[in-house]
Amino acid sequence: MAELLLRRKRPLDLLEKTKLPGGCLPVSGEGDIVARAVAEGEITAMLTLAAAMGGAVPDALFSVEGLAKGSVSTGSAAAPKSVKPPPTPKKAVSPPPKPAPEPVEEEGADVPELVDPWDFLDAGNEAEALGLFEGAALDMAGRDRVRELLMSTDPKEVVLACKIARLTNWRSLVMNLRRFLGHADTNVRREVVVTLGALAGPSMTHFVQRLEKDPSPEVRDAVAAALIQLDANG
Question: 181-203, pLDDT tens digit by residue?
Answer without folding.
Answer: 999 999 999 999 999 999 999 99
